[in-house]
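Translate structure to sequence.
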């Protein structure tokens, strides 16, 4: 009986610790980069952005958010936004956008795969469409790294979890 209780307490403690990591304080415009990293931790990627930089905070592979922090040339936060949205997806132009463009727009994918039929590399992003529906965006790249197809579908993983 004591073993079961100890395991239950440990499981609850670890679960709450995981939730605490998700309840971060959002940085404010004008905060120095040190404050951003103190609040959100080490970024999953850093991209050069003119004289400044962009910090990526991806919550993949199963997470449904990616935050981008724009840091200006003075080392201050100029914007902080969740980028897995329809508005950001619309900025990715089929036939023009490259892997680098996609990374800078919506960050790293949660999953990568390959479609042999047309030799496309596929990047998958899980997100909440309109903040409600569990969805997936799949971005298909040709061998030159150019976006050739974008598909938005319901995320079957969440449907399977309810069964």
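Result:
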């Amino acid at each position: 009986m004591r073993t079961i209780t100890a395991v239950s307490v440990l499981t609850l403690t670890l679960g709450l610790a995981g939730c605490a990591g998700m309840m971060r304080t959002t940085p404010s415009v004008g905060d120095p980069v040190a404050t951003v990293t103190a609040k959100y931790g080490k970024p999953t990627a850093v991209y050069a952005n003119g004289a400044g930089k962009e910090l990526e905070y991806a919550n993949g592979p199963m997470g449904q958010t990616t935050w981008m922090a724009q840091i200006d040339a003075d080392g201050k936060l100029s914007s902080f936004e969740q980028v897995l949205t329809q508005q950001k997806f619309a900025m990715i132009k089929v036939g023009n956008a490259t892997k680098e463009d996609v990374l800078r727009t919506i960050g790293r994918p949660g999953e990568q795969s390959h479609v042999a039929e047309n030799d496309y590399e596929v990047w998958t992003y899980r997100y909440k469409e309109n903040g409600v529906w569990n969805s997936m965006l799949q971005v298909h790249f040709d061998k030159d790294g150019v976006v050739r197809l974008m598909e938005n579908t319901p995320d079957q993983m969440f449907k399977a979890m309810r069964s």
